[in-house]
Design a protein that fits this description.
Strand content: under 5%
Number of strands: 0
Shape: globular
Number of helices: 4
Length: 97
């Protein structure tokens, strides 16, 4: 079954609220499976650096929280590169994997 992008976002926001509630709603509403949601988020091509997908995911998660729990800290740090890692040319040469 194909789902509209808005349905996918809606399903993710419900799942972020409560996975148990999501599974109960699946019994009465045609929602994507939990596995589909995991695959959907895994396909997001999030690369190092500032990326709008990261902020979209944070927005979905934070909108699902009560106002009192919407405290968020975004921390950026550097990392060391290991000798066994290689440069990924297929990703436009933007990062190391």
């Amino acid at each position: 079954m194909r789902y509209d992008p808005e349905i996918k976002k809606f399903a993710l926001s419900i799942y972020f609220l409560s996975s148990r509630t999501y599974r109960e709603l699946q019994k009465s509403i045609a929602l994507p499976s939990v596995r589909f949601l995991h695959l959907f988020t895994e396909r997001w091509n999030i690369v190092p650096g500032i990326n709008n997908k990261i902020f979209e995911a944070l927005k979905l998660k934070l909108n699902s929280l009560p106002l009192i729990e919407r405290h968020c800290i975004l921390c950026a740090d550097e990392m060391s590169l290991k000798s066994h890692l290689f440069y990924n040319i297929s990703k436009n040469g933007n990062y190391w994997i």
